[in-house]
Amino acid sequence: MIIEKVWAREVLDSRGNPTVEAEITVSGHRITAIAPSGASTGTWEAHELRDGGKRYGGKGVLKAVENVRTEISGILTGTDPADQEAADRAMTELDGTPGKSRLGANATVAVSLAVAKAGAMAEGVPLYEHIGKGKVLPVPMFNIINGGKHAGGNLKIQECMLVPAGLPSYSECLRAASEIYMSLKNLLKKKYGPSAVNIGDEGGFAPPVNTVSEALETILEAASDAGYAPGKEIFLAMDAASSEFFENGRYDVDGMSLTAGELSDHYVSLTKEFPLVSIEDPFFEDDFETTAQLTKKIGNKVQIVGDDLFVTNTERLMRGIKEGAANALLLKVNQIGTVTESAEAAGASFENGYRVIVSHRSGESEDTSISDLSVGWGTGQIKTGAPARGERTAKYNRLLRIEEELGSAAVFPGKKAFGL
Ligand code: PEP
Ligand code: MG
Protein backbone atom coordinates (compact mmCIF):
# COMPACT_ATOMS: atom_id res chain seq x y z
CA MET A 1 0.00 0.00 0.00
CA ILE A 2 1.08 3.56 -0.59
CA ILE A 3 0.29 6.96 0.84
CA GLU A 4 -2.15 8.47 -1.65
CA LYS A 5 -2.48 11.90 -0.13
CA VAL A 6 -0.95 13.97 2.69
CA TRP A 7 -3.07 16.81 3.99
CA ALA A 8 -3.42 18.96 7.13
CA ARG A 9 -5.77 21.42 8.74
CA GLU A 10 -5.91 23.75 11.73
CA VAL A 11 -8.02 22.39 14.61
CA LEU A 12 -8.27 23.33 18.32
CA ASP A 13 -6.49 21.72 21.27
CA SER A 14 -7.90 21.22 24.79
CA ARG A 15 -6.95 24.75 25.85
CA GLY A 16 -8.75 26.17 22.83
CA ASN A 17 -5.56 27.04 20.96
CA PRO A 18 -5.04 26.08 17.32
CA THR A 19 -2.94 23.04 16.50
CA VAL A 20 -2.05 20.89 13.48
CA GLU A 21 -4.12 17.89 12.43
CA ALA A 22 -2.43 15.79 9.72
CA GLU A 23 -4.48 13.54 7.44
CA ILE A 24 -3.03 10.69 5.40
CA THR A 25 -5.01 8.75 2.83
CA VAL A 26 -4.26 5.04 2.31
CA SER A 27 -6.54 2.84 0.20
CA GLY A 28 -9.16 5.56 0.27
CA HIS A 29 -9.17 5.66 4.11
CA ARG A 30 -8.37 8.98 5.74
CA ILE A 31 -6.27 8.66 8.90
CA THR A 32 -5.66 11.62 11.21
CA ALA A 33 -3.32 12.58 14.04
CA ILE A 34 -3.15 15.81 16.08
CA ALA A 35 -0.09 17.57 17.50
CA PRO A 36 -0.22 18.30 21.26
CA SER A 37 1.27 21.43 22.83
CA GLY A 38 3.01 22.17 26.15
CA ALA A 39 2.78 25.16 28.51
CA SER A 40 5.86 24.55 30.67
CA THR A 41 7.99 23.86 27.62
CA GLY A 42 11.70 23.12 27.84
CA THR A 43 14.14 25.51 26.17
CA TRP A 44 15.69 22.64 24.21
CA GLU A 45 12.47 21.26 22.74
CA ALA A 46 11.95 21.08 18.97
CA HIS A 47 10.28 24.20 17.58
CA GLU A 48 6.53 24.68 17.53
CA LEU A 49 5.79 26.85 14.49
CA ARG A 50 3.20 29.58 15.17
CA ASP A 51 2.08 32.24 12.69
CA GLY A 52 2.34 35.37 14.85
CA GLY A 53 0.22 38.38 13.94
CA LYS A 54 -3.33 39.03 15.12
CA ARG A 55 -5.13 35.81 14.21
CA TYR A 56 -5.65 33.57 17.29
CA GLY A 57 -3.44 35.98 19.26
CA GLY A 58 -0.46 34.95 17.14
CA LYS A 59 -0.97 31.24 17.85
CA GLY A 60 -2.32 30.24 14.43
CA VAL A 61 -0.60 27.29 12.72
CA LEU A 62 -1.45 27.97 9.07
CA LYS A 63 2.24 28.05 8.09
CA ALA A 64 2.80 24.60 9.60
CA VAL A 65 -0.38 23.36 7.89
CA GLU A 66 0.84 24.73 4.57
CA ASN A 67 4.20 23.00 5.05
CA VAL A 68 2.37 19.67 5.37
CA ARG A 69 0.18 20.32 2.34
CA THR A 70 3.10 21.28 0.11
CA GLU A 71 6.66 20.25 1.04
CA ILE A 72 5.89 17.25 3.29
CA SER A 73 3.19 15.99 0.96
CA GLY A 74 5.71 16.29 -1.88
CA ILE A 75 8.15 13.84 -0.30
CA LEU A 76 5.71 11.37 1.32
CA THR A 77 3.00 10.93 -1.32
CA GLY A 78 3.53 7.60 -3.06
CA THR A 79 5.71 6.12 -0.29
CA ASP A 80 5.06 3.10 1.94
CA PRO A 81 3.32 4.09 5.23
CA ALA A 82 4.74 0.98 6.92
CA ASP A 83 8.27 2.40 6.65
CA GLN A 84 8.15 4.81 9.59
CA GLU A 85 11.89 5.38 9.69
CA ALA A 86 12.04 6.38 6.03
CA ALA A 87 9.14 8.83 6.41
CA ASP A 88 10.63 10.40 9.56
CA ARG A 89 14.12 10.58 8.08
CA ALA A 90 12.77 12.22 4.93
CA MET A 91 10.95 14.89 6.97
CA THR A 92 13.97 15.54 9.20
CA GLU A 93 16.27 15.94 6.19
CA LEU A 94 13.74 18.10 4.38
CA ASP A 95 13.54 20.39 7.40
CA GLY A 96 17.32 20.64 7.65
CA THR A 97 17.48 22.47 11.01
CA PRO A 98 18.41 20.92 14.38
CA GLY A 99 15.09 21.80 16.05
CA LYS A 100 12.73 21.38 13.07
CA SER A 101 12.23 25.12 13.12
CA ARG A 102 11.72 25.46 9.37
CA LEU A 103 8.78 23.08 8.87
CA GLY A 104 7.71 23.11 12.54
CA ALA A 105 7.81 20.13 14.90
CA ASN A 106 4.02 20.54 15.22
CA ALA A 107 3.82 19.74 11.49
CA THR A 108 6.26 16.81 11.59
CA VAL A 109 4.85 15.22 14.75
CA ALA A 110 1.27 15.23 13.44
CA VAL A 111 2.42 13.67 10.15
CA SER A 112 4.73 11.17 11.88
CA LEU A 113 1.91 9.92 14.13
CA ALA A 114 -0.50 9.78 11.18
CA VAL A 115 2.05 7.72 9.20
CA ALA A 116 2.32 5.32 12.17
CA LYS A 117 -1.47 4.89 12.25
CA ALA A 118 -1.59 4.49 8.45
CA GLY A 119 1.21 1.90 8.62
CA ALA A 120 -0.77 -0.04 11.24
CA MET A 121 -3.83 0.06 9.04
CA ALA A 122 -1.86 -1.06 5.98
CA GLU A 123 -0.50 -4.01 7.96
CA GLY A 124 -3.91 -4.78 9.45
CA VAL A 125 -2.69 -4.62 13.06
CA PRO A 126 -3.35 -2.25 15.97
CA LEU A 127 -0.98 0.72 16.33
CA TYR A 128 0.68 -0.72 19.46
CA GLU A 129 1.58 -3.90 17.56
CA HIS A 130 2.78 -2.00 14.51
CA ILE A 131 5.25 0.17 16.42
CA GLY A 132 6.62 -2.47 18.82
CA LYS A 133 6.27 -5.95 20.10
CA GLY A 134 5.34 -4.99 23.67
CA LYS A 135 2.12 -6.07 25.32
CA VAL A 136 2.65 -4.08 28.50
CA LEU A 137 -0.25 -2.18 30.03
CA PRO A 138 1.39 0.80 31.73
CA VAL A 139 0.98 1.88 35.33
CA PRO A 140 -0.83 5.23 35.01
CA MET A 141 0.26 8.33 36.90
CA PHE A 142 -2.79 10.55 37.45
CA ASN A 143 -2.22 14.27 37.90
CA ILE A 144 -5.08 15.06 40.30
CA ILE A 145 -3.82 18.31 41.86
CA ASN A 146 -2.59 20.82 39.29
CA GLY A 147 -0.21 23.66 40.12
CA GLY A 148 2.48 25.78 38.47
CA LYS A 149 1.74 26.97 34.93
CA HIS A 150 -1.24 24.61 34.62
CA ALA A 151 -3.35 26.33 37.28
CA GLY A 152 -3.90 29.79 38.72
CA GLY A 153 -3.06 29.22 42.40
CA ASN A 154 -0.10 29.48 44.77
CA LEU A 155 1.13 25.89 44.45
CA LYS A 156 4.48 26.05 42.65
CA ILE A 157 4.96 22.30 42.14
CA GLN A 158 3.22 21.64 38.81
CA GLU A 159 1.83 18.12 39.23
CA CYS A 160 0.81 16.04 42.25
CA MET A 161 0.14 12.56 40.94
CA LEU A 162 -1.62 9.50 42.20
CA VAL A 163 0.12 6.23 41.29
CA PRO A 164 -2.05 3.20 42.13
CA ALA A 165 0.82 0.80 41.37
CA GLY A 166 -0.24 -1.71 44.05
CA LEU A 167 -3.43 -2.68 42.24
CA PRO A 168 -3.53 -5.84 40.14
CA SER A 169 -4.39 -4.48 36.67
CA TYR A 170 -4.55 -1.34 34.55
CA SER A 171 -8.36 -1.19 34.73
CA GLU A 172 -8.29 -1.51 38.52
CA CYS A 173 -5.82 1.42 38.62
CA LEU A 174 -8.24 3.50 36.57
CA ARG A 175 -11.17 2.60 38.82
CA ALA A 176 -9.16 3.50 41.94
CA ALA A 177 -8.13 6.80 40.37
CA SER A 178 -11.71 7.72 39.53
CA GLU A 179 -12.95 6.80 43.02
CA ILE A 180 -10.14 8.75 44.67
CA TYR A 181 -10.69 11.73 42.34
CA MET A 182 -14.34 11.87 43.47
CA SER A 183 -13.41 11.50 47.13
CA LEU A 184 -10.78 14.25 46.70
CA LYS A 185 -13.46 16.49 45.21
CA ASN A 186 -15.61 16.07 48.33
CA LEU A 187 -12.68 16.56 50.66
CA LEU A 188 -11.48 19.74 48.91
CA LYS A 189 -14.98 21.20 49.00
CA LYS A 190 -15.20 20.49 52.73
CA LYS A 191 -11.72 21.85 53.51
CA TYR A 192 -11.53 24.91 51.26
CA GLY A 193 -15.04 25.68 49.92
CA PRO A 194 -16.74 25.12 46.56
CA SER A 195 -14.22 27.01 44.37
CA ALA A 196 -11.48 24.56 45.43
CA VAL A 197 -12.81 22.02 42.93
CA ASN A 198 -12.11 24.22 39.91
CA ILE A 199 -9.72 22.44 37.64
CA GLY A 200 -6.40 23.09 35.89
CA ASP A 201 -5.20 22.31 32.36
CA GLU A 202 -4.78 18.57 32.90
CA GLY A 203 -8.13 17.99 34.61
CA GLY A 204 -6.76 17.88 38.17
CA PHE A 205 -8.16 20.14 40.87
CA ALA A 206 -6.55 23.50 41.52
CA PRO A 207 -7.30 24.12 45.23
CA PRO A 208 -5.87 27.05 47.22
CA VAL A 209 -3.04 25.02 48.79
CA ASN A 210 0.31 26.70 49.34
CA THR A 211 2.68 23.77 49.63
CA VAL A 212 3.21 20.39 48.02
CA SER A 213 2.99 18.71 51.47
CA GLU A 214 -0.53 20.07 51.89
CA ALA A 215 -1.48 18.75 48.43
CA LEU A 216 0.06 15.30 48.95
CA GLU A 217 -1.47 14.94 52.43
CA THR A 218 -4.91 15.73 51.00
CA ILE A 219 -4.50 13.15 48.22
CA LEU A 220 -3.57 10.46 50.76
CA GLU A 221 -6.54 11.40 52.93
CA ALA A 222 -8.81 11.12 49.86
CA ALA A 223 -7.29 7.72 49.03
CA SER A 224 -7.97 6.46 52.57
CA ASP A 225 -11.53 7.86 52.46
CA ALA A 226 -12.09 5.87 49.26
CA GLY A 227 -10.83 2.70 50.97
CA TYR A 228 -7.34 2.41 49.45
CA ALA A 229 -4.12 1.87 51.40
CA PRO A 230 -1.37 4.49 50.98
CA GLY A 231 2.06 2.92 50.69
CA LYS A 232 0.58 -0.45 49.73
CA GLU A 233 -1.85 0.16 46.91
CA ILE A 234 -1.44 3.89 46.42
CA PHE A 235 1.80 5.77 45.82
CA LEU A 236 2.56 9.35 44.86
CA ALA A 237 4.61 11.16 42.24
CA MET A 238 5.32 14.78 41.49
CA ASP A 239 6.52 16.89 38.59
CA ALA A 240 8.24 19.93 40.08
CA ALA A 241 8.77 21.51 36.62
CA SER A 242 11.23 23.58 38.61
CA SER A 243 12.52 25.77 35.75
CA GLU A 244 9.24 27.64 36.21
CA PHE A 245 10.13 28.78 39.76
CA PHE A 246 13.88 29.18 39.33
CA GLU A 247 15.30 32.70 39.18
CA ASN A 248 18.71 34.18 39.91
CA GLY A 249 20.06 30.93 41.30
CA ARG A 250 17.21 30.35 43.76
CA TYR A 251 14.00 28.33 43.82
CA ASP A 252 10.86 30.09 45.04
CA VAL A 253 8.76 27.13 46.22
CA ASP A 254 6.52 26.08 49.10
CA GLY A 255 6.75 29.56 50.63
CA MET A 256 10.57 29.42 50.77
CA SER A 257 13.48 30.76 48.73
CA LEU A 258 15.91 27.84 48.40
CA THR A 259 19.34 27.15 46.95
CA ALA A 260 19.69 23.96 44.87
CA GLY A 261 21.23 22.18 47.87
CA GLU A 262 18.38 23.26 50.17
CA LEU A 263 15.80 22.19 47.58
CA SER A 264 17.54 18.82 47.37
CA ASP A 265 17.16 18.41 51.16
CA HIS A 266 13.51 19.42 50.83
CA TYR A 267 12.91 16.61 48.31
CA VAL A 268 14.69 14.10 50.56
CA SER A 269 12.48 15.01 53.50
CA LEU A 270 9.34 14.78 51.31
CA THR A 271 10.34 11.23 50.32
CA LYS A 272 10.58 10.36 54.03
CA GLU A 273 7.17 11.84 54.79
CA PHE A 274 5.23 10.47 51.78
CA PRO A 275 5.17 7.27 49.67
CA LEU A 276 6.75 9.12 46.73
CA VAL A 277 7.99 6.90 43.92
CA SER A 278 8.86 9.50 41.28
CA ILE A 279 10.12 13.09 41.12
CA GLU A 280 10.31 14.83 37.72
CA ASP A 281 12.51 17.83 36.84
CA PRO A 282 13.62 18.47 40.44
CA PHE A 283 16.08 21.17 39.30
CA PHE A 284 16.11 23.66 36.42
CA GLU A 285 16.45 22.29 32.91
CA ASP A 286 20.26 22.59 32.56
CA ASP A 287 21.24 21.47 36.04
CA PHE A 288 22.59 18.00 35.30
CA GLU A 289 24.95 18.29 38.28
CA THR A 290 22.49 18.68 41.16
CA THR A 291 20.12 16.24 39.44
CA ALA A 292 22.98 13.71 39.48
CA GLN A 293 23.65 14.39 43.18
CA LEU A 294 19.99 13.81 44.08
CA THR A 295 19.89 10.67 41.92
CA LYS A 296 22.93 9.33 43.78
CA LYS A 297 21.30 10.13 47.10
CA ILE A 298 17.79 8.71 46.63
CA GLY A 299 17.69 7.26 43.09
CA ASN A 300 17.79 3.67 44.33
CA LYS A 301 14.33 4.07 45.85
CA VAL A 302 12.82 7.04 44.03
CA GLN A 303 12.63 7.46 40.27
CA ILE A 304 14.19 10.76 39.13
CA VAL A 305 12.70 11.80 35.79
CA GLY A 306 14.13 14.11 33.13
CA ASP A 307 11.52 16.01 31.13
CA ASP A 308 12.74 19.55 30.36
CA LEU A 309 16.20 18.16 31.21
CA PHE A 310 16.23 15.62 28.33
CA VAL A 311 13.40 16.86 26.03
CA THR A 312 13.23 13.36 24.45
CA ASN A 313 16.54 14.21 22.78
CA THR A 314 18.95 11.24 22.68
CA GLU A 315 22.01 13.55 22.84
CA ARG A 316 20.85 15.23 26.04
CA LEU A 317 19.78 11.88 27.45
CA MET A 318 23.24 10.40 26.75
CA ARG A 319 24.82 13.31 28.63
CA GLY A 320 22.50 12.57 31.56
CA ILE A 321 23.40 8.88 31.45
CA LYS A 322 27.12 9.72 31.42
CA GLU A 323 26.78 12.06 34.40
CA GLY A 324 24.30 9.90 36.31
CA ALA A 325 21.62 12.61 36.15
CA ALA A 326 18.12 11.13 36.67
CA ASN A 327 17.23 7.49 36.05
CA ALA A 328 14.15 7.86 33.84
CA LEU A 329 13.14 9.61 30.63
CA LEU A 330 9.84 11.42 30.16
CA LEU A 331 8.97 10.72 26.54
CA LYS A 332 6.96 13.37 24.65
CA VAL A 333 6.88 12.78 20.90
CA ASN A 334 6.39 16.46 20.06
CA GLN A 335 9.51 17.48 22.02
CA ILE A 336 11.64 15.88 19.31
CA GLY A 337 9.13 15.85 16.44
CA THR A 338 9.03 12.27 15.11
CA VAL A 339 8.06 8.77 16.26
CA THR A 340 11.42 7.34 15.10
CA GLU A 341 13.53 9.77 17.14
CA SER A 342 11.29 9.15 20.17
CA ALA A 343 11.79 5.40 19.75
CA GLU A 344 15.55 6.00 19.63
CA ALA A 345 15.43 7.90 22.93
CA ALA A 346 13.35 5.10 24.50
CA GLY A 347 15.82 2.49 23.20
CA ALA A 348 18.83 4.38 24.57
CA SER A 349 17.06 4.65 27.95
CA PHE A 350 16.33 0.92 28.17
CA GLU A 351 19.88 0.00 27.09
CA ASN A 352 21.29 2.09 29.91
CA GLY A 353 18.89 0.97 32.62
CA TYR A 354 16.79 4.14 32.54
CA ARG A 355 13.01 3.83 32.80
CA VAL A 356 10.64 5.48 30.31
CA ILE A 357 7.31 7.20 30.97
CA VAL A 358 5.25 8.08 27.88
CA SER A 359 3.60 11.46 28.43
CA HIS A 360 0.84 13.71 27.14
CA ARG A 361 1.18 17.52 27.01
CA SER A 362 -0.89 20.00 28.99
CA GLY A 363 -2.49 21.04 25.68
CA GLU A 364 -4.01 17.84 24.27
CA SER A 365 -6.69 16.53 21.93
CA GLU A 366 -8.82 13.48 21.22
CA ASP A 367 -5.74 11.79 19.68
CA THR A 368 -4.85 8.59 21.57
CA SER A 369 -1.56 7.58 19.89
CA ILE A 370 0.46 7.81 23.10
CA SER A 371 -1.55 4.99 24.71
CA ASP A 372 -0.46 2.66 21.91
CA LEU A 373 3.14 3.88 22.08
CA SER A 374 3.34 3.05 25.78
CA VAL A 375 2.01 -0.49 25.20
CA GLY A 376 4.00 -1.24 22.02
CA TRP A 377 7.28 0.08 23.40
CA GLY A 378 6.62 -1.65 26.71
CA THR A 379 7.49 1.40 28.80
CA GLY A 380 5.46 0.24 31.81
CA GLN A 381 4.45 3.80 32.76
CA ILE A 382 2.27 6.56 31.29
CA LYS A 383 1.17 9.97 32.54
CA THR A 384 -1.78 11.56 30.85
CA GLY A 385 -3.50 13.76 33.41
CA ALA A 386 -6.50 13.32 35.68
CA PRO A 387 -9.08 10.55 35.16
CA ALA A 388 -11.41 13.29 33.87
CA ARG A 389 -11.89 15.61 30.85
CA GLY A 390 -12.27 14.13 27.37
CA GLU A 391 -8.75 14.71 26.06
CA ARG A 392 -7.33 12.82 29.10
CA THR A 393 -9.94 10.05 29.35
CA ALA A 394 -9.55 9.41 25.59
CA LYS A 395 -6.06 8.02 26.37
CA TYR A 396 -7.14 6.11 29.49
CA ASN A 397 -10.15 4.65 27.65
CA ARG A 398 -7.97 3.58 24.72
CA LEU A 399 -5.84 1.62 27.23
CA LEU A 400 -9.00 -0.10 28.53
CA ARG A 401 -9.75 -1.26 24.98
CA ILE A 402 -6.18 -2.49 24.49
CA GLU A 403 -6.33 -4.35 27.82
CA GLU A 404 -9.53 -6.06 26.71
CA GLU A 405 -8.09 -6.88 23.27
CA LEU A 406 -4.87 -8.37 24.68
CA GLY A 407 -6.74 -10.39 27.30
CA SER A 408 -4.46 -12.89 29.04
CA ALA A 409 -1.51 -11.87 26.82
CA ALA A 410 -1.39 -8.47 28.57
CA VAL A 411 1.45 -7.86 31.02
CA PHE A 412 0.90 -5.44 33.91
CA PRO A 413 4.06 -4.58 35.87
CA GLY A 414 2.38 -2.91 38.89
CA LYS A 415 4.87 -1.97 41.61
CA LYS A 416 7.73 -3.58 39.65
CA ALA A 417 7.54 -0.64 37.23
CA PHE A 418 9.03 1.40 40.08
CA GLY A 419 11.41 -1.26 41.36
CA LEU A 420 9.21 -1.94 44.41
C1 PEP B 1 5.05 18.29 31.90
O1 PEP B 1 5.76 19.24 32.26
O2 PEP B 1 5.40 17.14 32.16
C2 PEP B 1 3.81 18.54 31.14
C3 PEP B 1 3.03 17.54 30.71
O3 PEP B 1 3.47 19.84 30.93
P1 PEP B 1 3.64 20.65 29.55
O4 PEP B 1 2.97 19.86 28.50
O5 PEP B 1 2.97 21.96 29.86
O6 PEP B 1 5.11 20.77 29.32
MG1 MG C 1 7.24 17.77 33.19
Describe this structure in words.
It is a single chain. This protein has 420 residues and is of the alpha/beta class. Helices cover 39% and strands 17% of the residues. The protein contains 13 helices and 14 strands. The chain has an eight-stranded mixed beta barrel with strand order 4-5-6-10-11-12-13-14, surrounded by six helices. Helix 1 (62-76) packs across helix 2 (84-95). It is globular, with a radius of gyration of 21 Å. The mean pLDDT is 98. Magnesium ion binds at residues 239, 241, 280-281, 307, 330.
Short account of what is shown:
This protein is of the alpha/beta class and 420 residues long.
Layout of secondary structure:
Layout: E1 3-12, E2 18-26, E3 29-34, H1 62-76, H2 84-95, H3 105-123, H4 127-131, E4 139-146, E5 159-163, H5 170-192, H6 212-225, E6 235-239, E7 246-247, E8 250-253, E9 256-258, H7 260-273, E10 276-280, H8 288-298, E11 303-306, H9 314-323, E12 328-331, H10 333-336, H11 339-351, E13 355-359, H12 369-376, E14 381-383, H13 390-406
Parallel strand pairs: 4-14, 6-10, 10-11, 11-12, 12-13, 13-14
Antiparallel strand pairs: 1-2, 2-3, 4-5, 5-6, 7-8, 8-9
Helix pairs in contact: 1-2, 1-3, 2-3, 5-6, 7-8, 9-11, 12-13
The structure holds phosphoenolpyruvate and magnesium ion (MG).
Biggest sheet statistics = 8 strands, mixed, barrel
Counted by DSSP, the helix tally is 13
Please tell me the overall pLDDT: 98
Q: Low-confidence parts lasting 5 or more residues at pLDDT below 50? A: none
Share of β-strand residues = 15-25%
Bound compounds, please? Answer: phosphoenolpyruvate, magnesium ion
Kindly provide the radius of gyration, computed on alpha-carbon positions and rounded to a whole number of angstroms.
21 Å
Structural class: alpha/beta
Approximate helicity band: 25-40%
C-alpha end-to-end distance: 45 Å
Identify the overall geometry: globular
Order of helices and strands: EEEHHHHEEHHEEEEHEHEHEHHEHEH
Spatial arrangement of strands, main beta sheet: 4-5-6-10-11-12-13-14
How many E strands? 14
